[in-house]
Amino acid sequence: MQEIDDRKAEAKRVIKRIYAIFEDHRDAAVSLKIKLGPQDLSFVLEALRQHAKGGVGTPVPGSRGEIHGYCLNRLFEELVEEPSNILFTTKTGPDTMRYDAMNAEFWIECLDLMEQTFCAPQD
User: Fold this and answer.
1) How far apart are CA 60 and CA 91, in angstroms?
2) How far apart are alpha carbons 82 and 13 in whole angstroms?
3) Which residues on adjacent β-strands are paired with residue 89?
4) Can you list the pairs that 93-96 forms with residues at least 24 positions away whose Cβ atoms lie under 8 Å?
5) What is the pTM assigned to this prediction?
6) How far apart are CA 66 and CA 27, in angstroms?
7) Dihedral pair phi/psi, residue 91, rounded to 5°
């Protein structure tokens, strides 16, 4: 299992990337007359957590109709690839590095932080 020196900083980097993807999907959904909000992001994050724990993840729950469901599942499909797209380096020798994809445990930590940051009820 890879050790991440600064887990909090790395998690912030990951959720910034995830949120940018969410914003792209949210903007694209407007042309389909679909508004994606914090609750929709929460549904997708839960599906991603289930997938990371060995579950299927799709179809994403919370669909308010066929087009809305399509938008949720497309977001899931893009985000589910992220752990293999985000690489961490490990020095293996004086001039060599090993690149590792994000492990499931840290991915779930990032999803949890994402939900706490962007999906928490606003008082």
Assistant:
1) 38
2) 12
3) 99
4) none
5) 0.88
6) 18
7) -75, 125
Please measure the distance between the N-terminal and C-terminal CA atoms of the chain and give it in whole angstroms: 39
Q: Which two tokens stand for residue 6?
A: 């600064």
- Euclidean distance between CA atoms 96 and 78, whole angstroms: 31
The separation between CA 118 and the C-alpha centre of its own chain, rounded to angstroms, equals 12
Distance (Å, rounded) from C-alpha 57 to C-alpha 77?
A: 10
Q: How would you write the chain as a 3-class SS string?
A: CCCCCCHHHHHHHHHHHHHHHHHHHHHHHHCCCCCCCHHHHHHHHHHHHHHHCCCCCCCCCCCCCHHHHHHHHHHHHHHCCHHHHCEEEEEEECCEEEEEECCHHHHHHHHHHHHHHHCCCCC
Q: Which residues make beta-bridge pairs with 101?
A: 87
pLDDT, tens digit, for every residue of 42-97?
999 999 999 999 999 999 999 999 999 999 999 999 999 999 888 877 788 899 98
Nearest-angstrom CA–CA distance, 78 and 36: 15
Lookup: tokens for 98: 């090993």
Give residue 9's identity as a one-letter amino acid code: A
